[in-house]
Amino acid sequence: MESAAEPRARRPFGGSARALGDLTANPFRADRDRIVGSPFFARLGGVTQVISPVGSGLLVHNRLTHSLKVAQVARAVAERLNADERWRDLLDKLGGCDPDVVEAAALAHDLGHPPFGHLGERVLDRLARQRLGLSDGFEGNAQSYRIVTSTEIRGAATTGLDLTAAVRAAMLKYPWTRLDHPDPHPRTMDPPPRGATPPPDDPESGSSKFGAYRTELDDLRQAREPFAGRIPDWQQTVEASVMDTADDIAYAIHDVEDFYRVGVLQQGSVSAELMAWQRESGHFRAITDAALATAARRPGAAIERLRRQLHRKDAWIADDDAFAAAVEHVREELVDGLLAMPFDGSIEAEQYVARFSARWSTRFVEAITVTDQPSVRSGHVLLGCAQWHEVQVLKFVHHRFVLARPDLALHQRGQARLLGTLVEALWEWLLDPEEESRLPRRLHDLVELAEAELHPRTPDRIGRARGRAIVDFVAQLTDGQAVAMLDALSGRSGALWTDAFVL
What we know:
about 500 residues; mainly alpha; two-stranded antiparallel ribbon; two-stranded antiparallel sheet; globular
């Protein structure tokens, strides 16, 4: 049977052919270079991972450093899988696992993340659907796909970054649209794939996570065409699965690094939670969900809720012995290890952090396997059972002791209000007929692009085009640009010409 790598090699290009002078021996490396050389990639240095890099004075990860680490892990996984004879035939059967494809997709996977990280993603989605009338709303993965396929305007054409079909397919963590592709839609499956479930507060809105808007559906189909008959329409390619797994690994490790450095993760609180559950796991397992809810503030209760959640959502891999072992391993490495030495900025402390991260990265990369028949909730590439549980516990530490903090919530509520006010101000500007000639040039271009994408008989075509253009425009700002632009629109900024950089 012809391998998927062969049609990809014969048809390596995106929507438009590249000039002959632009070809290299490896078009996938050319894709990587196009991504890294794009302004969309450079912008990620000013976009929040968890804490906004603007004005914080903190040396924490942003979306750029996160993407670089994901690419590093993803390439290491791909190279390891290709070197292992156990997986060679299976990888070829499923469509291949090219390290350059995986690396390029990892570098591009967060291009569409808006200012202020996941908070900005939720706010823009709500505004897009409820205020601007866009049924597709906003989703960071779909916005990344839109950027590489549509929103880069060259002359009369929109070519995105003109990436190969292979790399575009590898970007699709969630290879479906919000509502209607493929048919039947993955959200109707029992159980649904990870990310396909609608948000609990809006069950009719479609999947929480999705890889492309309807406007890019033809491109999604073309990118996935070489894998038809090899993997289901809703399943990630192997290369997308590697990228997704690497994203999880990098996220679990470097967020712990960040909040150790800034002093947010304290040994006492993390130790109390983990050790209380270890001492009283029998008691916690025996009580009802209702009783557990009433004991929400009791040490050990939160991690017991995690254990139950894993069984509800991921029964295909959840295992109580593996979970208990993961809690113990994280306690040894984190509580008795990293957090036992308060970070003081010294060379010794930095080396200690580096060794901690290297140990975990090596452990996870070496535990990657490939399966022919994955669970609906998994990809073809996955972590071993022990390491999968360890990732869940590390992510729990981040969620419990960082994301749940009231001081972070206060900061984020202000950022959410800022984005809402900015969207409203841009909408009013677009509706002002006397200001049409003075619109930001980029916003004007994006309106024309969005209008051209819509069918001429689309209800309120102009309004929807304006709404999508505003979403595209705001999503391409850095945190600092969003703040500066709202200051200018609110009349609070006196720096007339320096504010022009956001336009």
